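---------- Forwarded message ----------

FYI, see the PALLD protein record below. Original note from H. follows.
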Amino acid sequence: KVSGLPTPDLSWQLNGRPIRPDSAHKMLVRENGVHSLIIEPVTARDAGIYTCVASNRAGENTFSLELTVAAKEVHKAPVFIEKLQNTGVTEGFPVRLECRISGEPSPQIFWKKENESITHSTDRVSIHQDNYGYICLLIQGATKEDAGWYTVSAKNEAGIVSCTARLDVYTQWQQQPQTTKPKKVRPSTSRYAALCDQGLDIKAAFQPEANPVHLTMQSGLVESDDL
């Protein structure tokens, strides 16, 4: 609100340049003499130093302020790019339960075995997450007690998702002799870079002979002791 005799003219500047009225910038004067500059919608180009200039024949007066335009926060509910898969492993060998999740902001991850939460890593069971959305529960030296249903949940401000998979742990005598050369499965170095940075020897943990892929090829019905 400005006063003076004669009644001052009022103009607005952004970073020293005059602001012209357009579809996004409107200059209004209320009946009580209050002047307004309305910007709708505001964009990153509107950030800067605004100066209000009031002038008449007797002189000129100004004031300035800074407008900061923050980027709009994006919210995307978590989704599974790759879900957990049912897995079988021979007792004593390492196994990983893995999935891939996306979401904005980056979701919190929660693991559960049956109805018990897995809240922290131990020397034998560890939780890992990298910058590409890969989530991994690594069990080094699986035991019969590790068998069961595992659930991973991802939560952020936009929503929550979960998926569940079964881990079966077979005893050594359930493993039939190899008749064909086992298929070699090598983990991607980029995917497990974050794990190696933490001092884990991933290649040693996942030797080809420790991979349970061949168990799916055996004939007959293999039943977990938990069923």
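H. also flagged this: The domain at 9-67 is CATH 2.60.40.10 (Immunoglobulin-like).
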